[in-house]
Amino acid sequence: MGSFRRTYNFAAGPATLPQEVLERARAGLADWQDLGYSLLEAPFTGDEFKALMETTQQQIRTALALPDHYHVLFLQGGASAQFSLIPLNLLPPTATAGYVETGHWSTRAFEEGQRYGPAQVIASSRDSGFDRIPPVSQWALSEHLHYCHITPNETANGVQFQSDPDCGSVPLIADMTSEFLSRPIDIKRYGMIYAGAQKNLGPTGLVIVIVREDLLGGARPETPTVFNYQLQIAQQSRINTPLMFAVYLTHLMLVWLEEQGGLKTVQAHNISQSQSVYRLIDEDDFFHCPVIPEHRSVMNVCFSIRATQLTQRFLAEASARGLVNLAGHSQAGGLRASLYNAQPDDAVSALTSFMNDFRRRYG
Ligand SMILES: Cc1ncc(COP(=O)(O)O)c(C=O)c1O
Known about the structure:
Layout: E1 8-9, H1 19-30, H2 47-64, E2 70-75, H3 78-90, E3 96-101, H4 104-113, E4 120-124, E5 145-150, E6 153-154, E7 159-160, E8 172-175, E9 192-196, E10 207-212, H5 229-234, H6 244-260, H7 263-282, E11 287-288, E12 300-305, H8 311-320, E13 323-324, E14 335-338, H9 345-362
Parallel strand pairs: 1-13, 3-4, 3-5, 5-8, 8-9
Antiparallel strand pairs: 2-10, 6-7, 9-10, 11-12, 12-14
Helix pairs in contact: 1-6, 2-6, 3-4, 7-9
The structure holds pyridoxal-5'-phosphate.
């Protein structure tokens, strides 16, 4: 199969996937593991699919250096479903959950979390327009919090934690949807992490949940069986038909990640790509990044043109050059270039070269 790419895609997710992964997935679609039928036609109870799930789980364990007391689950409903499923599984009805509000997605998690108990915002950067991460020293962490929820990378606002925070004895839960497997993490800082797969792993709908053993055991009776962490752990995420194709693509993405050199290598690569765009933005006053330099996202570069009337022209001209999906999130506006693991260097050079040219012509 020759290159089918006619565009450089900067979408925030679903997002660019490596061409070689798509080609491998195509082969599995036609005839999976020489079974003579497609993966889409394979029984989820068959040995082949069970082995695929086991391998994929092991790949995640290896990539993140997960100790045995963390469980890995493949669930459905995307990351948003977890906003409700976390309290249903982990929060007694009268206990308080703490939320750090740093942008659109942490706000969504908090709003949903409030439906299940006395949720509390324990730190927020709302007043400064979500332009930074509030320092841990200023979070209202207290022993009475059952857990503390964070969104380490805010996809819509382009703000990212620069390290894994230490919350002491309060279990930390992180929505890593838009930074999952883009950098090594210090897993012992977390009680639970979860991530929708449609950024660095590919397929929508699948959410990977990694949860520490000691947090389990208190699911509310009304928790749906298929979303009960403990019951799904006991059944290897196969209480009902799993998202088979999504798990398969995740497996292929993890193979590809390993071929790239693993998390440290992709992290360095991701930082270098985002820096080249931020450098250009900071060169003068034509473009503007609202996030303070220390907390800018490596994954989602959010920016604007100060002369806002030029935004639509920028998008139209970019698109004519094959640079697509650069509009900012609907709530945040402006522009956004998403640079997940699979974004090729050529795409970033084409973008910076276009931005330079646009600035020269309209600046
Ligand atoms: C950080 C973050 N959390 C949650 C979500 C919601 O994911 P889903 O659409 O899979 O529910 C997104 C989607 O972009 C996201 O970026």
